[in-house]
Amino acid sequence: MVQVFILTNPNLNPDYAEALFYFIDYLLYLPSELTKQLTKDLSINIEKEAKHMLYSEKLKEAPTFAEYFKTVREEGFEKGMEKGMEMGIEKGIEKGIEKGIEKGIEKGKMEEKRNLAAELLREGFSVEKVAKMVKLSLDEVKEIGKNL
């Protein structure tokens, strides 16, 4: 048996199908629990049958479809927020790693300067000469000299 959907039936005008759904929807009065169930069932069928229904202004005003569209919007918003948060976290991690690497490199360079200054002081170079050679302040070189 071949199943023919209303919205994809080539013999049925799409405007007529929209009007039919709109009319049926207004005839239905369902308790909120059943409306939720219908909304869930509709989402499956709408996706299978005709995504162009999502753009119908008439159907967006019908009670059941309005609930469906509200649900779709909320889910889309939530998914968008989740995706945005994931991307933000990934970007933050990347930036953090970059900053950490930069700080590590700077710290390594400074440690190398201090080690070189200590070595030059042990060799008998003056504090002023060491400060000039390794590009450290006089106070830093004096502090290094005290710790030798």
Features of the shown structure:
0% strand; rod-shaped; 6 helices; mainly alpha; 148 residues
Describe the 3D structure.
With 148 residues, the protein is an all-alpha fold. It is 77% helix and 0% strand. The protein contains 6 helices and no strands. It has helices at 14-27, 32-49, 57-61, 63-122, 127-134, 138-146. Helix 2 (32-49) packs across helix 4 (63-122) and helix 5 packs across helix 6. The longest helix has 60 residues, at 63-122. The protein is rod-shaped and about 100 Å long.
Oligomer: single chain
In percent, how much strand structure appears in the residues?
under 5%
Number of strands: 0
* Number of alpha- plus pi-helical segments: 6
Helix content, binned percent: over 70%
What's the end-to-end separation, in Å? 94 Å
Low-confidence stretches: none
> Which structural class best describes the helix and strand composition?
mainly alpha
Spatial shape: rod-shaped
What's the mean pLDDT score?
78
Largest beta sheet, briefly?
Answer: none
Radius of gyration (Å) = 36 Å
The string of secondary-structure elements, in order, is HHHHHH
